[in-house]
Amino acid sequence: MTASPLLSVANLRIAFPTRHGLAEAVRGVSFEVGREKLGIVGESGSGKSLTGRAVLGLVPAPGVVTADRMAFEGDDLLTASERRMREIRGRRISMVMQDPKFSLNPVMTVGRQIAEAYRVHSKAGRTEARRRALEMLEAVRIRDPERVFGLYPHEVSGGMGQRIMIAMMLIPDPDLLIADEPTSALDVTVQMQVLAIMDELCSSRGMGLVFISHDLNLVASFCDRILIMYAGRVVETCRAADLHSATHPYTRGLLGSLPRLDDPRPELPVLDRDPAWLEESRG
To answer: What is the mean pLDDT of the chain?
Structure first.
């Protein structure tokens, strides 16, 4: 971690009202992110995506978000007005949603959507926005940017759609990118290409990255640090290089459940859950 973090989150809680009272989906999560790649991993329902959405004030109603602290470079995200949050979203913090191709507007060309993302935050003219959009399409390694600029979302492949969304999120030149399983719908070859693009752009721009995923091996190979979440809590934090030496039984169980080519087994082990994990939290 750097001495001066971009994002600081302390005791984040997200709850939803039910007939039986508030149900907590995120329970006391704390972490900091600097100009590094932070991975957040865990099973579906562990609270990973909600944590990312909470940073940008995107938790859907009637969700209730509280925290002791949630600040981005001096801005208090808990008390910021909606107008201030609109200035922060995209311009300073961008988020690539899960299965991002389906976040594109189906009735607008992809080039127009990327250019619009730039104009909203820079007040640039159409000519300048088009030039920057073409540069971003080239930066995410799309061949023939001029042709792709005029295509509609249904005319591009899944991998190209992911790259277009990454271009759209990075064109305002944010300081922090939150990527919510941006490669989960891609085959392995395209997945690695998209990750290489994100890694290159983050490094060249000096950005911070929060990479949300359920794929432990992918996060271990891509990130600098990892948070492991279980049932809305962080149960373990470690350097990515040390993931396979993690000590928490939940992390060990997840790692043990992964299939391996060098260790063929007739059956993969099933995770044996301990009720005590529900009350644990490690920063």
So the answer is: 88
Q: How far apart are CA 179 and CA 23, in angstroms?
A: 26
| 280/29 Cα distance (integer angstroms) | 11
- Give tens-digit pLDDT for 31-89: 999 999 999 998 888 999 999 999 999 998 899 999 999 999 989 999 999 999 988 99
How far apart are the C-alpha atoms of 10 and 259, rounded to whole Å? 35
- CA 49 to each of CA 35, 53, 75, 182, 232: distance values in angstroms, whole numbers, following the listed order: 20, 6, 22, 12, 11
The model's pLDDT over 84-105, given as tens digits with 9 standing for 90+, comes to: 998 899 889 999 887 766 788 9
CA distance 238 to 283: 10
CA–CA distance, 16 with 204 (Å, rounded to integer): 40
Structural domains in the chain, sorted by start: 1-92+176-283 (3.40.50.300), 99-173 (no CATH)
Residue 2: what pLDDT?
A: 46
- Global pTM? 0.88
| Predicted local confidence at residue 240, as pLDDT | 92
Give the dihedral sign, CA 29/30/35/39: negative
